[in-house]
């Protein structure tokens, strides 16, 4: 059983290796122009140097910082506002029109105005990421909180639980699958906005480097950084899926 | 932005009776107006809201904004169409064949999490700065959500329905057309709703980063030129586009798959 699970991704990985070999061959034969797509082995050399010299770390840390801080702040704001709007009718009536107005703005479009006010530093980038993260989390939290079983709430009240306790022990756990689904959507958006804001400000981590390398015609370097970014995306998604499965273990068992 | 697939589109009603929420929005706009006019916020980046509206009206009447919006939407929809077709086709193959899933799965999983703005620089190398690159960006954006949802939908098609069609002697191509495709339509559309919101973002992002086309480029150009009124007007246009596209899609969805919600199968 265990061996079978370990072997399951093997055909897929072999296919990927085959794909890279074909690419290597096609570039070698001149079927693909080397200026556009260097052979995978050349990209690997750059990648290896970046990894071994440790040069990969500063840009990687810069981008991860943006994504993680922005994601945390945006998720916290989304959960807080969504819970308030789902729980108190007055909060819903007060905030709903504003949320409906701000939500459809493609958050990428807010990066240029934010640059005017907050400059091109981390403050601006983290704000952009947090804004993009907030709304999907807010909408899902709202839906989750509203969908809580009335019977559960009534029995909490019967036991004399106050609002705080009911929110913490009944409402939030029940809304958790929704909240996490919103956060999963937002994680992808957070990466998009982080990379975009690095590109537009012309400074910072992985996003800036990919664009800068292309503009400097350092094509192998561009692909190497792109691979690193892909691995970051893969790792963040996997980490989130793992955390989600742990947080929702009770749901799987039902 | 999009909510998760899990979330059904909220029925948004345009209520005009005065509510606390409407008052809050009006109050904030008023605060914006006053703070800009009285010099509370004394910055060339903070024009009065009415000036933004005036700039929007001016550039709309002059035809500049309609032209930009048209070109952005044309590229976005071309990309969406191509990406959706490819996504449905790939999703059907993925959903139907365990072998294909196992062979191609890791490659897809490796490519999918790359944030779209990052694929723009290599695409520029291959396709240049103009339409071909931007349409491809929108297509790639649409491809993955549609692929995932189609494959998921295919697995959710009830085996009973297929078995019945088979025992009535319905040939395979008609089974695909009459049973499978209608059954997976709600899933495809759910993927498309996610893709639609994302494609607007990525198309605009591509316009911001490369070339000189569309609303995205206009937005960045106005920022560099220090013309804040036009810049905010462009943000406003994009907000309206985002809202309009989502509303339009919800209406379309209700027409196409009203039966799906009516039979309560979305729970």
TrEMBL record, chain A:
InterPro entries: MetI-like (IPR000515), MetI-like_sf (IPR035906). Gene3D superfamilies: MetI-like. One of its GO terms (cellular component) is plasma membrane. GO terms for biological process: transmembrane transport. It is a multi-pass membrane protein. Its main location: membrane. It is found in: Cell membrane. The chain crosses the membrane at residues 66-89, 126-145, 189-211, 223-243. Residues 60-240 form the ABC transmembrane type-1 domain. The keyword Transmembrane helix applies. CDD domains: TM_PBP2. Keywords: Cell membrane, Membrane, Transmembrane, Transmembrane helix, Transport. It holds the Pfam family BPD_transp_1. The keyword ATP-binding does not apply. Belongs to the binding-protein-dependent transport system permease family. This is ABC-type nitrate/sulfonate/bicarbonate transport system permease component. It comes from Muricoccus pecuniae.
From TrEMBL, chain B:
The keyword Transport applies. One of its GO terms (cellular component) is plasma membrane. Residues 69-253 form the ABC transmembrane type-1 domain. Signal peptide: none annotated. Keywords: Cell membrane, Membrane, Transmembrane, Transmembrane helix, Transport. SUPFAM superfamilies: MetI-like. Its main location: membrane. It holds the Pfam family BPD_transp_1. The keyword rRNA-binding does not apply. It is found in: Cell membrane. It is a multi-pass membrane protein. The chain crosses the membrane at residues 76-96, 184-211, 231-252. GO terms for biological process: transmembrane transport. Belongs to the binding-protein-dependent transport system permease family. This is ABC-type nitrate/sulfonate/bicarbonate transport system permease component.
């Amino acid at each position: 059983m265990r061996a079978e699970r370990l072997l399951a991704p093997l055909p897929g990985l072999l296919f990927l290796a085959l794909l890279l070999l074909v690419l290597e061959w096609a570039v070698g034969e001149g079927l693909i122009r080397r200026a556009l797509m260097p052979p995978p082995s050349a990209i690997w050399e750059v990648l290896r140097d970046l990894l071994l010299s440790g040069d990969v770390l500063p840009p990687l840390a810069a981008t991860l910082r943006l994504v993680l801080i922005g994601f945390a702040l945006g998720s916290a704001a989304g959960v807080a506002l969504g819970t308030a709007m789902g729980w108190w009718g007055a909060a819903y009536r007060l905030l709903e029109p504003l949320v409906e107005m701000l939500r459809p703005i493609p958050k990428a479009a807010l990066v240029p105005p934010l640059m005017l006010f907050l400059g091109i530093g981390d403050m601006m980038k983290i704000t952009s990421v947090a804004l993009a993260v907030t709304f999907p989390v807010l909408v899902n939290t709202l839906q989750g909180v509203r969908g809580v079983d009335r019977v559960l709430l009534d029995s909490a009240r019967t036991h004399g639980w106050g609002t705080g306790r009911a929110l913490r022990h009944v409402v939030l756990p029940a809304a958790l699958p929704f909240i996490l689904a919103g956060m999963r959507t937002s994680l992808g958006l957070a990466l998009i906005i982080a990379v975009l804001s690095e590109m537009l400000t012309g400074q910072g981590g992985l996003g800036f480097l990919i664009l800068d390398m292309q503009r400097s015609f350092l094509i192998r370097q561009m692909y190497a950084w792109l691979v690193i970014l892909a691995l970051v995306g893969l790792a963040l998604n996997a980490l989130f899926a793992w955390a989600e499965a742990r947080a929702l273990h009770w749901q799987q068992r039902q | 932005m999009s909510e998760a697939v899990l979330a059904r589109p909220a029925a948004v009603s345009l209520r005009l009776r005065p509510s606390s929420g409407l008052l809050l929005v009006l109050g904030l706009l008023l605060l914006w107006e006053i703070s800009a006019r009285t010099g509370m916020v004394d910055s060339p980046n903070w024009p009065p809201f009415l000036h933004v509206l005036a700039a929007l009206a001016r550039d709309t009447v002059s035809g500049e904004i309609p032209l930009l919006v048209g070109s952005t939407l044309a590229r976005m929809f071309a990309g969406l169409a191509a990406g959706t077709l490819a996504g449905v086709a790939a999703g059907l193959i993925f959903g139907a064949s365990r072998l294909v899933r196992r062979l191609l799965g890791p490659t897809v999983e490796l490519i999918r999490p790359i944030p779209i703005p990052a694929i723009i620089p290599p695409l520029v190398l291959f396709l240049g700065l103009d339409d071909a690159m931007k349409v491809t960006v929108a297509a790639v954006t649409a491809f993955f959500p549609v692929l995932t949802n189609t494959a998921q939908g295919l697995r959710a098609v009830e085996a009973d329905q297929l078995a019945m069609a088979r025992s009535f002697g319905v040939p395979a191509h008609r089974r695909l057309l009459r049973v499978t495709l209608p059954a997976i339509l709600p899933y495809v559309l759910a993927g498309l709703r996610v893709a639609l919101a994302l494609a607007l973002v990525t198309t605009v992002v591509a316009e911001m980063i490369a070339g000189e086309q569309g609303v995205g480029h206009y937005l960045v150009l106005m920022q560099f030129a220090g013309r804040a009124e036009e810049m905010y007007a462009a943000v406003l246009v994009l907000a309206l586009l985002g809202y309009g596209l989502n509303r339009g899609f919800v209406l379309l969805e209700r027409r196409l798959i009203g039966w799906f919600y009516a039979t309560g199968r979305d729970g």
